[in-house]
Sequence to fold (338 residues):
Amino acid sequence: MASAPTGRSRSLSICFPSAKAADIKTGPSFFASEPAAEFDFKGYLLRKAASVNRALDLAVPPQLHPKLMHEAMRYSLLAAGGKRIRPILCIAACEIVGGAEAFAMPPACAVEMVHTTSLMHDDLPWMDNDDLRRGQPSCHRAYGEPLAVLAGDALLFLSYRHLADMDNYPSGVPPALILRATTELSRSIGAEGLAAGQVLDMESTGVNKPIDVDRLESIHLHKTAALLEGSVAIGGIIGGGSDGEIERLRCYARCIGLLFQVVDDILDVTKSSQELGKTAAKDLASDKTTYPKLLGMERSRELAEELLRDAESQLEDFDPAKAAPLLHLANYIAYRQK
Fold:
């Protein structure tokens, strides 16, 4: 299993062949013009998000007890909405290697549960101390800090149960693939992934000595890209993809993971809290190192362009029709406004 590269130059040499400048896609948020779109990406997003929301609603029914804990779980998972990027990545990765949506839906729900848990915990006062999430009060503001911790924990444990339960899958999904997918999820959120990235981020916030770009990339390869990588790798695994296909999907996900963070950092200083649906400029207020702070706005935008074309290059060997959702997802991340 390949480990995430820790430096930008190293990641370029391992995963990303060079691309011609003419291949760079441009779009309205940072670039000159929006890419042409023959694929109905908006319709695809709406259909997949609706499918994920229905599955999540069934996975965390409202009538379970303790009632207040499940209410808090559903508040963060369902009531607050969300773009569902990670579960849609999981489904699209399954489909690109020839699998069906039904195979990918249990792991897609699992990765969204994990992502929501990370947001519930990140927003707590002793972490990022954020009062706003997805346009509404954070879970700890709505339900109190102790319940936010416990509801997040419960959602995390439920993600593993949901992923591993054979009854959630249609017939024909080998148990060995489900076991491999479960291992992949653990890797992406534990000491090699999201949790490690959060610790690295905490250690690098408010320090007197500025961190360099390699350190910043390492933070976000773990904190942001790892779960995106896990999402597409799990989708590829459940879909029956080859090791080569799964590795290309991993490289694609590392690119869009860093791209997501670069864009997030830019939006944090160019958009309002109302536009973002979360507290704006909070990284600046907490003296956190960001890409614009370290590289400047112009170089950050150039880096976003590089990451976008690198992500696209990883999809070249796949069937174009099946690759369309992942290609447009990369563009969506680059051009998003919140």
